[in-house]
Amino acid sequence: MPSTLWKQTLSRLEQDNNEAEVTAWLRSLSAVESGTSLVLNAPNRFTKRKIESNYLSQIAEIAEFLTGQKYCISVKIGTVTNSGSNSGGNSVSRKANPNSRQTTPPNTKQPFGFEKLTSEYTFDQHVVGESNQLARYMAHRAAEEPGLRDHNPLFIYGDVGNGKTHLMQAAGHELIRRFPDKQIRYVRANNFVRHLVTLMKRKDSESIERFKNFYHELDVLLIDDIHHFAGADVSQQEFLHTFNALLEGNKQIIITSDRFFKEIQGVEDRLKSRLGQGIAIRVKPPELETRIAILESKAERRGVELDPEVSRFVAEKIYGSVRELEGALNQLIASHRFTNKGITISVVKQVLYDMLEFNARPIDIQTIVREVARFYRIRVDDILSNSRKANIARARHVAMVLSRNLTTHSLPRIARDIGGKNHTTVVHASKKIDGLLEKDSEFRTEFNTLKDILSS
Question: What whole-number distance in Å separates Cα of residue 433 and Cα of residue 443?
Answer without folding.
Answer: 9
